[in-house]
Amino acid sequence: MKSLIPLGKPDITEAEVQAVVTALRSDLLSIGPRQARFEELVADRCDRRHGVAVSSGTAGLHLLLAALGIGPGDEVITTPFSFIASANCILYVGATPVFVDIDPRSLNMDPHRLEAAITPRTRAIIAVEVFGNCAHMDEIERIAHAHEISLIEDACEALGGSLGGRPAGSFGRAAVFGFYPNKQITTGEGGMIVTDDDRLAGLCRSLRNQGRPIATTRDPADTEPANNNRAGSWLAHERLGYNYRLTELASALGIAQMERLDAILEARRNVASMYIKRLMDWEDLILPNMAEMESASWFVFVVRLTDLYGSTERDRILQGLRRHDIGTSNYFPCIHLQPFYRQKFGHKPGDYPIAEHVSQRTIALPFFNGLDEMGIELIAQTLRVMLQREQLLKRDR
Ligand SMILES: *Cc1c(COP(=O)(O)O)cnc(C)c1O
Which of 142, 209, 286, 360 could form an SS bridge with 304, CB 3.0 to 4.6 Å? Predict the structure, then answer.
């Protein structure tokens, strides 16, 4: 189904098109200079020494847990209110996810509930900056540090955001960004690990490249003379690795997007302010609450219904918006209630009541650069009609 106003769309200009075409004509389509440049741009942006480009945000999270040696018998603490990848990566390495309920304002893991979930088996915390909100990351970092547990910042939704002057991606042992087309910047598919830890970065580089020795950068089939001396190690595999490399085409796209990041973030802030201005006084809605509004990095624009509504009403409103060609989604269904988590770990409704309460009432509205005043008016008026219908149906009961 094609929406008249889509839920999201990437911001691609002629600069991006040219960058990809140039990369395509360079005859070097993987493991080239563009990957290294893209890594540098993202690492610099969040004050980290290393960037390790990978094929997706999910791959980045998986590599980090593998590089930290986390496996069966280990526990990793995370949030139930997120995109599923932030918990699935724990299952990939055979460890056990331990969920901590969220703060109802920020929608991020509640730091006040975190300590109670730490056990002698806890090896890491994966804290997610949900919808780009960096709230509590500093407190969570303090707790992780005090307990000598690795903090992995899932910053996949927060590129360009900050908290107390520190950029998203700078908290904890390492962080991961994602570049799927609905994120602030895109490489089609792609991700980036950032860290200050030399050894961890080296391990991630090896693991993304089939476990090859860390110094091996190129396939000897390439004719560049500079690489001939390393040719012998291309088929040496020191550890079980993966192919999680990012192509030069994707890296070229990423570089062009990074060069426009500030303009992109500004455009997103403008759309968010227009929404906030238009929806501010609506009694039946709770508007998003970002930690530092003026400098926030907006991933999506998610409003919530008040307690007067439940999931039945919310789902009907989503359906109504879609019927009127307005893209919308229920970001996010709780991870612990997904069928295979329920089956494997015995989770049930009521286990994480705040996350569940929020999750039943969210409405993600269309959000992309170039969404104008007219578009927002159309969305607002349609949403108003859907809310009024629910009021009438309630009276009818
Ligand atoms: C987008 C996202 C990821 C990574 O997704 P990919 O599609 O694998 O790049 C991970 N965690 C969160 C919270 C995300 O939103």
Answer: 286
Nearest CA to ligand 1 atom 13: 83
CATH number (domain holding residue 302): 3.90.1150.10
Tell me how far CA of residue 268 lies from CA of 137, 184, 274, 391, in angstroms: 22, 8, 10, 32
Q: What is the pLDDT of residues 318-352, one digit of tens each?
A: 999 999 999 999 999 999 999 999 999 999 999 99
Please give all residues whose beta carbon lies within 6 A of any atom in ligand 1, as ranges.
Answer: 56-58, 82-83, 85-86, 128, 154, 156-157, 178, 180, 191
Asked whether residue 9 is assigned to any structural domain, the reply reads: no
Task: Determine contact, residues 248/29, Cβ cutoff 8 Å.
Answer: yes
CA distance 352 to 334: 9
pTM for this structure? Answer: 0.95
Q: Whose CA is nearest to atom 9 of ligand 1?
A: 57
Sheet holding 301-305, edge to edge: 285-286, 301-305, 362-365
Q: What is the CA radius of gyration of the chain?
A: 22
* 83 and 227 assigned to the same domain: yes
Which residues pair with residue 53 across a beta bridge? 192
Question: Tens of pLDDT along 16-38?
Answer: 999 999 999 998 999 999 999 99
